[in-house]
Amino acid sequence: xxxxxxxxxxxxxxxxxxxxxLQVEGDGRHFFATIVSAEFDGLSRIKRHQxxxxxxxxxxxxxxxxxxxxxxxxxxxxxxPATPGAAATHHHH
Length: 93
Known about the structure:
Order of helices and strands: HEEHEH
Number of strands: 3
Shape: globular
Helix content: 25-40%
Strand content: 15-25%
Distance between the termini: 52 Å
């Protein structure tokens, strides 16, 4: 089986998990996903990850160990200082 591209991993997740924001980076061996979904609301980090693994299903059983992810709810994402433009107010200097 060919190594999936970041775009493919993104598609797999998006198909099974409604995401407010989804970004997957990687080189075919190691992936880093930023996943923002309202479905994560009230779930622990472990449960969120399990939810993503379920979304990926058998497709990535082999590659799953190479996926690191950041799972956030839309509120957490909006509050995250690392996201440009996420703040409701824009400051112009």
